[in-house]
């Protein structure tokens, strides 16, 4: 299993637009073959900071997810609304 933690920081005042764009892809991502989990979270102490927790059966499933047109469209929409670069950390599940 592959776990991914993506941190996305919206510019102040752009939080609602970023959240909507992130929410809109969730149903499609959850239907992708090999997607085990995909959840959107917001920091308790910073309403501009989002975290997406993702879990895939293997690297092929993650690579498929990364190449979908709806994910590319979502990034095109949100990149101008972000305060800094997207941070992505990948993990191998141990247990």
Give an overview in words:
Strands 2-3-1-4 form a four-stranded antiparallel sheet, covered by helices on one side. With 95 residues, the chain is α+β, with helices and mostly antiparallel strands. 12% of the residues are buried. The chain is globular and about 35 Å long. It contains three helices and four strands; from the N terminus they run βαββααβ. It has a single domain, classed as Alpha-Beta Plaits, CATH 3.30.70.100.
Strand content: 25-35%
Give the proportion of residues in helices: 25-40%
Order of helices and strands: EHEEHHE
The tally of helices reads 3
Low-confidence residue ranges: none
Number of structural domains:
1
Task: Give the SSE map.
Blueprint: E1 2-9, H1 15-31, E2 35-42, E3 49-56, H2 59-66, H3 69-78, E4 87-92
Antiparallel strand pairs: 1-3, 1-4, 2-3
Helix pairs in contact: 1-3
Short description:
The chain is α+β, with helices and mostly antiparallel strands and 95 residues long. Helix content is 37%, strand content 32%.
List keywords for this structure.
about 100 residues, alpha+beta, Alpha-Beta Plaits, four-stranded antiparallel sheet, 3 helices, 4 strands
